[in-house]
Every structure is written in C-alpha cells, then in structure tokens.
Amino acid sequence: AEQPVAPYTQSDANAGATPFTNDRLWRAFHGEAGVSRIVEDLVARNQNDPRISDIFKNQDLVRLRRVLKEQFCYILGGGCSYTGRDMRAAHKDMGIQRADMAALVENLQAAMRVERVPFAAQNHLLAKLAPMHREVVER
Ligand code: HEM
C-alpha cells in the first residue's frame, strides 16, 4: 500500500509542465487504459534496468505509479488533476545524473512504442518532460 509523505501543497503546477489544451494527445495515448499500461511498463522497465534500478529500490512505487499516471494524464489533456509533489522535491537527494534521465527516457520510449503511440505524439510528451531535467538532475 501507499506510504504517507511529508505534507506539501497540492497544485497542478507541481506537474512541471503546462497541459495540451485539447484531448488529441490523450486519445493518441489511448486514454486512461493506455497511459496506465505505459506507466506500469515504464516502472517495470526502470526496476529491471541495471543502469538505474538501484535508484528505484526502497521507494514507494505504488505512489509513483499513481501520481505518474495523473501527471501524464494532466499534461496530455486528459483532464486529470495532479496531486503529487513538484519535480524538485520528488527527486531531491537521489543523485540523479543526466545519463539516468536518458535511460529513463529510453524506457519511456519503449513503453510508448509497445502501446503503439504514434511517433509524433510520443515526441510531444517527451518535449514537455525534457525541460524537467533542470529539477530532476543533480549537479
Ligand atoms: C522527466 C523526467 C521525470 C518525471 C516526469 C518524473 C516524475 C516523477 C513523479 C511524478 C514522481 C512522484 C512524485 C511524488 O511522489 O509526489 C517521481 C518520483 C520518483 N522518481 Fe521521477 N521523474 C522523472 C525522472 C526520474 C529519473 C531520471 C529517475 C531515476 C532514474 C526518477 C526516479 C524517481 C523515483 C525513484 C521516484 C520515487 C520517489 C519516492 O518514492 O519518494 N525519476 N518522479
């Protein structure tokens, strides 16, 4: 089950990107079922990826799956609210490096490919996520 976290202010702004203003991308991702499959596959790939698996050990992956689905839904124009923490707080002191971010993006691309998300639609999501390296990667 999900573990409690320290209190924080809930806001869609915590998602770290502005959403697309229509639901075309949400539909290209096959809506709630598609995004759910992509997030499940992404988290499993990260756990099984020797490049980054250590970072996912002893973390609340129940919570991660839930809020990651919300975040993708929010950004893709699916009309969800994002209830998670902001990207800086969520990744603080994990020591995440650029190469870790690149590995995670590769895993997300694989998950989107398996879901048969059209390539252009994949790139629209990746373009929203890319600037988040500033909050996620530690120097
Ligand atoms: C654009 C890139 C990324 C996005 C959009 C993203 C998104 C998120 C979100 C929404 C959360 C949960 C926030 C919360 O609990 O309130 C989270 C947590 C987490 N992220 Fe990321 N993340 C990104 C990059 C990465 C990278 C590169 C890694 C490691 C390779 C990583 C590892 C983790 C881990 C282990 C947690 C769980 C933290 C915990 O349980 O407290 N993330 N991420």
TrEMBL record:
Keywords: Heme, Iron, Metal-binding, Signal, Transport
TM segment ranges: none
Family annotation (Pfam families): Bac_globin
Keyword Lipoprotein: no
CDD domains per UniProt: TrHb1_N (cd00454)
Superkingdom of origin organism: Bacteria
Alphabetized InterPro entries for the sequence: Globin-like_sf, Globin/Proto, Hemoglobin_trunc
Entry annotated with the keyword Protein biosynthesis: no
Protein name in the entry: Group 1 truncated hemoglobin
